[in-house]
Design brief:
heterodimer, A: about 250 residues, alpha+beta, Ubiquitin-like (UB roll), Fumarate Reductase Iron-sulfur Protein, Chain B, domain 2, 2 domains, 5-stranded mixed beta sheet, about 15% strand, elongated, B: mainly alpha, 3 helical TM bundles of succinate and fumarate reductases, about 0% strand
Chain lengths: ~250, ~250
């Protein structure tokens, strides 16, 4: 390891949601080509060898699409780079000898499970409240039986990029989930399949979002700036529009 | 006979209709005070109304720059103080202002409760501007200024200066208030607070209304930025220029 680098890590350690957490300091020798999660693998190997409790962190695909790697690195969700998840962040983004502070998503709606791993079930409950389209059971319908223009497909796809990672909530000063809910509402209200539940969906999802304890939007734009999938802030405007329209129609 | 009965029945029906509909709509409108999106809508609607008020207020104040001994300004002030339409709008404006303040305070404290454990790492201005994150603080600065400002001029113009133009006028009151350098400093600080509050608030209101598209949002934001600089600059210039005795 000719070009190894020393990183001083300050990692949030918390046994479970009920106990108080604190920062622990570790030193790791990393290669600049490692991903941030691989650096944590190295740290955990060392901790296990020393007979210590390894750092709990969520990860699944390690290719930027699962949205599990909920780490706030030096105050920014998924670290200093634009449009990447933690697994796509490489150690070459840091300098030899840097001190790096790593903490979990902090929002009351996302309680800490352990260390850097948080419970994002609140998002699942928002989706179950209305983030779906109803489809008749039976034979699969031919994919091209409903025509969708390229523009509409593009709009829907832009929002469908959302991986539900929660970086928007973690970046927002109010821990608001509006970029997430906005992305889902924009995607489904753009498509013909989403029309039957269009108004009841947006009201149900916003009610559930409020009930889960997410904050209100104050339009700072931090969510869109930190979104690894670059969901634009305009989805929140679409969410507002859809919601007020549904309310005007007495929903 | 048949028609009378029919009408009575219809009348009863209409009453039930109005009652049930009214309750239904009251229930629907309750989202304005209960849901996160409703509360934001109140902030945006009242905010835009206050922006419209600022424009009118600024245009009238700017007449002191004619440097005609306050003649034009006093005529405008006299109109604003005694025109029934303006006085009615003024009541609506005060209701809007109160809603803006109450909802604003509620939102600041309620939103703070959504993250009990704070972050240790500081992202600084990496993902948002400081003033967009400090609307509560900036609003408080404007509010402190506003209380003083209303005492200085609104109370005087509405309750103390008699009807008609004479020696006791609002322009003379301005000259007197701005002789005090502390008042001038407070007014300039108030205008700084207003600038940053508007820099975020103007564009933010449109976003809340659901008006956001890449084809026109840059234009709205540019107008907002220009408004946020020009209007408070004119407001702040008046006490400074008057204190220096350049306008009298």
């Amino acid at each position: 390891m000719g070009n190894s680098m020393k990183i001083n890590l300050q990692v949030w350690r918390q046994k479970n949601a009920k106990t108080e957490g604190r920062f622990e300091t570790y030193q790791v020798n990393a290669s600049p080509d490692m991903s941030f999660l691989e650096m944590f693998d190295v740290l955990n190997e060392e901790l296990i060898e020393d007979g210590k409790e390894p750092v709990a962190f969520d990860h699944d695909c390690r290719e930027g699409i699962c949205g599990m790697c909920s780490m706030v690195i030096n105050g920014r969700p998924h670290g200093p780079k634009q449009a990447v998840t933690t697994c796509q962040l490489h150690m070459r983004s840091f300098n030899d000898g840097d001190t790096v502070v790593v903490e979990p998503w902090r929002a009351n709606a996302f309680p800490v499970v352990k260390d850097l791993s948080v419970n994002r079930s609140a998002f699942d409950r928002i989706i179950s409240s209305g983030g779906f389209v109803s489809v008749n059971t039976g034979n699969a319908v031919d994919a091209n039986s409903i025509l969708i223009s390229k523009e509409v497909a593009d709009t829907a796809f832009e929002s469908a990029m959302c991986i539900g990672c929660g970086a928007c909530v973690s970046a927002c000063k109010n821990a608001s989930a509006m970029l997430f809910v906005g992305a889902k509402v924009t995607q489904l209200s753009a498509l013909p399949q989403g029309q039957p539940e269009r108004e009841s969906r947006v009201v149900a999802m916003v009610n559930q979002m409020d009930a889960e304890g997410f904050g209100a939007c104050t339009n700072t734009g931090a969510c869109a700036a930190e979104c690894p999938k670059e969901i634009p802030l305009s989805v929140i405007a679409t969410l507002n529009r859809e919601y007020y329209k549904a309310k005007l129609n007495g929903k | 006979m048949f028609y009378t009965n029919g009408n009575a029945f219809q009348l009863l029906n209409l009453q039930t209709f109005i009652l049930t509909k009214r309750y239904k709509y009251m229930g629907v409108l309750s989202f304005l005070f209960s849901s996160s999106l409703g509360r934001k809508l109140i902030m945006a609607v009242t905010g835009i109304s206050l922006i419209a008020f600022l424009l009118v207020h600024c245009l009238i104040n700017a007449t002191v720059f004619f440097n005609d001994g306050g003649k034009t300004f006093n005529e405008a002030a006299e109109f604003m103080a005694h025109n029934w339409f303006i006085r009615t709008t003024e009541i609506l404006l005060f209701v809007g202002l109160l809603l803006h303040i109450i909802q604003g305070i509620y939102l600041v404290f309620d939103n703070r409760k959504k993250r009990s454990a704070k972050y240790s790492g500081k992202a600084g201005n990496a993902n948002s501007t400081w003033y967009s994150r400090s609307m509560g603080l900036l609003g408080s600065i404007v509010l402190i200024f506003l209380v003083l400002h209303l005492k200085h001029f609104w109370v005087v113009s509405r309750f103390e200066i008699p009807h008609g133009l004479n020696d006791e006028n609002l322009f003379a009151e301005m000259v007197a208030v701005f002789e005090n350098p502390i008042a001038v400093i407070v007014y300039v600080i108030g205008c700084f607070g207003l600038t940053y509050h508007l820099m975020h608030g103007f564009g933010s209101a449109f976003q809340t209304f659901g008006i956001n598209h890449k084809s026109y949002t840059p234009f709205i934001n540019s107008v907002g930025m220009a408004f946020s600089f020009v209007i408070p600059l004119i407001f702040a210039a008046i006490p400074v220029v008057m204190h220096l005795g350049l306008i009298k």
